[in-house]
Amino acid sequence: MLKKSFYTLLFFSLLISCKKGEVKELSQKVTSVKSYTYNELKPLLERNDGKTYVVNFWATWCAPCIKELPAFEKLNEEYAAKNVEVILVSLDFPKQVDKRLIPFINKNNLHSKVVLLNDVNEDVWIKAIDSTWSGALPATLIYNAKGRKFYEQSFDYEKLESELKTIL
Fold first, then answer.
1. Is 30-167 in CATH node 3.90.960.10?
2. pTM exceeds 0.90 for this model
């Protein structure tokens, strides 16, 4: 009887959490984040495979970064079928990955690819990513075979989508 009640409760909880009759996928929890040095990350910033990449540099301690993340998640969802990939490059401190970054990813149900840039030579990689970048966050790189644009600013969804369309 207890087992049946549990499954009934689970079923109705899932049913109530669904919007407009759509079943929402239960996401698996993230347990690790791949860590890259700049030299390891560099190929992700220079791909020429027919896709358009939107690479956002952010951190959990950056309030403007957190505010704009839903725009990147929405872009990832709406443009995945249009050969666009969103990559969220975390600049969180490596010692805080388990206690801060991974819980943040799970709590906010991030679906975009999240990686950690773990390289202390910021004087080298900041300028290598874009010569105009001061190192401030948030920052975003949008690129494909047609072009490359770098932004040291925050985005809302409309502005982000508009900038993406200029390079598609």
1. no
2. no
